[in-house]
């Protein structure tokens, strides 16, 4: 314990030694600072006291600035010395009885001029006649610091100074309506060097010493000081001094008035005068106009400085605007005097005022600190050189920015023009797409009417044949042949329309590919069924050859585009085989992994730079026994409107677009076409494309015969309702089909066809009428056939509203089938997304309509009447060059 006490005592002695050393340091520094200050201020006062006609009169303005700041420095030195004395306990206050109210009023009156010029109401209310023992020098510093602080932070409103008395204390208070002190700063307000950062001050200068010195001084007088403040309301500083002499050591009490001092010494050294002068400077900086453009009235010292800096007129800097932002008015005036002879100078007492000016006016340089800095004190030559350098850099930046803005403007204009061209191109593309769609729709509608009426005539002829005698059978056979010719013509015309529309899509870059898994053999077989009647009529043997490994394989590519190419190949094969002595057409399927170069007499259609990687490749070909092609005829086959030799057959004559369209489709599928032929020895057309193997798809329906329209299924599976067989007689109710179609002819034809098949039908002329019929409780349909393009309400809108109401009312899903001439894949997909269960493309066969309806009414097995076509191994001449990967 004794050891701890000794260690603590030793540490206390060390701290005391450090404290004494600090006090000595402050004293020495104060002394060393006072000596040069005395030598500065003494001669300055002598010069300033010279008469106005003295040779030094021109320098008086600048010397006054020097004298003012020398006194300010002198005050700071005195503050440091006072701190040293107070901390060392060497500050011995001398208490004498004074009229505290009167002396306080005298000190406060020194601020009246500055405060009232600062547009603040100033009130001094001090009760006189009461003697208080106080050190007058110390009290002067206390009052001066508190009033100065109030004025500094009160930009408008009121400052009130009061002296009142209680039974035990004299109370001095100073209240202001300034910016106030944040609560977080109140506990530190009397700490040395603590400063409150706020934007609501007349000046940001200060060392944080004033209030700390005030606090220590009040304590040395035996008094107490506190502060109350609220941000945005104001602050009140209150000092309480005890009355009487009980708190004062007897040796510090003196009687009589303070000793007299000279007026000059009192003016230069009194602490309060320095503070008041500083406050006047705040007001002067706010009220004076500090905008200068110097050319006249320069004194010799300015001219001499100008000669040290190169002429700026060659650099076009004479109209440059320099902004000076500094809260020290003397420094502002000094910088203005240096720069105004060469530049337009705008000076402001704070950064906010400077920023407000810059936001509304042009400026070339801000002298406050950002891109570069000067440490005070600085030389005038250095300031001028720095200003010139930054103005030159600023001018160069402006020129560069102007060029960048010009380039940017040109780029924006170019981009705007480009975007406008793109928008116009997109608008034109959409308009062309609409034209293609309308053309497709308008071409298919009349073809559909012809086709359906031809089928009705066939039904009528079959009925007549069963009810007439043999003598009319020949005539009926001729009529039936005529109807068959009509059907063939419509089928041919439909293919021409499809090719023309596809050609338009190629020109407009609208031709697209939609890959999906499909059963390869079934899809090809369904395409061949389209030609059963025509090949039978022309006595052409049509067969499909495929290896066993490809009979049940699923591949992933675009089945509709593949079928389209195959149809074009078959069209050409039938055309060139119809007049041959031997009439055979063989469709074959192959697979291989590596693409070999084309063989002899083989013409390959592919880009010159095409690279075909190894993988699973599918080849679909058509071999005929026709007249064959010469090399010259082969090379022009795939050009627009090109034909090897026009056919005289009105039903199979070419139009020169089918192979052109096929070539573009194969290119989109990343494949190639090959033609192998010799004149007089038939032709083999084939296309090869890379595909991916796939597994069987759920819900696959083999009964849907492919007839050139997309094989689409609903994205939402429909659950079959219990249904009874359709019948034309008996007690079983026929299934009700609602036909929503705006074309009167199509209405009549489809109504007759469905009624002939045993259905009950009703008709609506547009989508809205169709919805009204659907929701009639006594005549609700079992299935709906709906056109897309209709007045009042189109088919897609009507279907969406139907699905929404079914969901809202928890109604069972009603099968809705689109019957439309809109054949693009995107349009079909839009129909399915709108809620249709399936789509049938015009022109259709009634068997397709009935088959589609049956899929949604009763489950059906694969019809045994549709026997598969004969198949055998492929016999392509170059099959040995292919490497099979299946089987």
From TrEMBL:
Chain ranges of the Histidine kinase domain: 28-245, 438-693
Disordered: annotated segments: 284-310, 867-887
SUPFAM superfamilies associated with the record: ATPase domain of HSP90 chaperone/DNA topoisomerase II/histidine kinase, CheY-like, Homodimeric domain of signal transducing histidine kinase
Top-rank taxon: Eukaryota
One Pfam short name: HisKA
EC number: 2.7.13.3
Low complexity composition bias: residue spans: 867-877
InterPro entries: CheY-like_superfamily, HATPase_C_sf, HATPase_dom, His_kinase_dom, HisK_dim/P_dom, HisK_dim/P_sf, Sig_transdc_His_kin-like_C, Sig_transdc_resp-reg_receiver
Reactions catalysed, as given in the entry: ATP + protein L-histidine = ADP + protein N-phospho-L-histidine
A GO molecular-function descriptor: histidine phosphotransfer kinase activity
Biased composition (Polar residues): 285-300
GO cellular component terms listed in the entry, alphabetical order: plasma membrane
Residues with PTM 4-aspartylphosphate: 787
Residue ranges annotated for the Response regulatory domain, each copy included: 736-857
Record key words, sorted: Kinase, Phosphoprotein, Transferase
SMART domains documented for this protein: HATPase_c (SM00387), HisKA (SM00388), REC (SM00448)
Biased composition (Basic and acidic residues): 301-310
Designated name of the protein: histidine kinase
